[in-house]
Specification:
Layout lengths: L2 E2 H8 L2 E3 L5 E2 L1 E2 L9 E5 L15 E5 L11 E5 L2 H15 L5 E2 L4 E2 L4 E2 L4 E2 L4 E2 L4 E2 L4 E2 L4 E2 L4 E2 L4 E2 L4 E2 L4 E2 L4 E2 L4 E4 L4 E4 L2 E4 L5 E4 L4 E2 L4 E3 L5 E4 L4 E2 L4 E2 L4 E2 L4 E2 L4 E2 L4 E2 L4 E2 L4 E2 L4 E2 L4 E2 L4 E2 L8 E4 L2 E3 H12 L1 H23 L2
Parallel strand pairs: 4-5, 5-6, 6-7, 8-11, 9-12, 10-13, 11-14, 12-15, 13-16, 14-17, 15-18, 16-19, 17-20, 18-21, 19-24, 20-25, 21-26, 24-27, 25-28, 26-29, 27-30, 28-31, 29-32, 30-33, 31-34, 32-35, 33-36, 34-37, 35-38, 37-39
Antiparallel strand pairs: 1-3, 2-7, 22-23, 39-40
Amino acid sequence: MEFTARQIANVLGGTIDGDPEIKINNFSKIEEGKSGTLTFLANPKYEHYIYYTKASVVLVNNSFVPSEPVTATLIKVENAYASLAILLDMVKKTKSKKTGIASTAFISSSSKIGEDCSIGQFAYIGENTTIGKNCYIYPNAFIGDNVIVGDNCILYPHTTVYEDCIIGNNCILHAGSVIGSDGFGFAPEGESYKKIPQLGNVVLEDNVEIGANTTIDRAVMDSTIIHKGVKLDNLIQIAHNVEIGENTVMAAQVGIAGSAKVGKHCMFGGQVGLAGHIHVSDHVSLGAQSGIAGNVKEGSVLLGAPAFNAKDYMRSAAVYKKLPEIYRTMGQMQQEIEKLKNLLNNK
């Protein structure tokens, strides 16, 4: 499939700086660009690549002003990264998609399957479960009893959805993700622990994406809720009765303890940890490996464990690296002070 720069600019609502008739048939990274490919520049630290990339077309932000001549044709758009996503999504949709139910799939007779679904080999769909239209259930996926899956969902291989859970429209569950496993609830009983039954469920609202091997535990009662537009990376643990607000994103290996509440439009770096029963407000950014033990105010930007203001953390980190030098200097100063004391006492 081949497109001209003019056609791409028309789709994206961009403007062209260069040859509007130049053709592309593939994508490439800007540092490895090849003739006939399209790439993009969104991060300023990659700018130096644009001056010698061999890619034919480069998506750039409207604000980009080159400091050297650029041989590639530029398409200027409001957001180069978002525009690339639009193009990649268009290409993905042109690829053929399987439909139909594999012969080895098990589907309970009491379940309902929507139109234009694909259900792969050895997939399992339990009793009284409803699958919406245009869903793609990959081989070996497990969907338990009384589950509701909305329209246009993708469940990749070895995805597990326990009983009674609800998945909205346009959701993606990557391989090995587990929705609705028991929360970690045990009551001390003498020298042992008694398991607390987990009788609630998990609710994923529309447009949620769950990464590979991420687990979301069912509530003790009521629901663990992942609100619309949330994107969770791989290897994340969400405990029972947690609630995550709309359009919040989390990088790999985040861990959130039970009954914590996270607001809207938050951004968590990798390996962030949240204690249980705390509230993180809207528009909070937590740097990688931050440890959060208490409530966080709206708009906070935190780093460290325990986490505190990001700018203060960076200043503290700069001082921390100098601690050996500071320690030696203090020792020398202490020796000099002792010498001065001795001189004064001997007068």
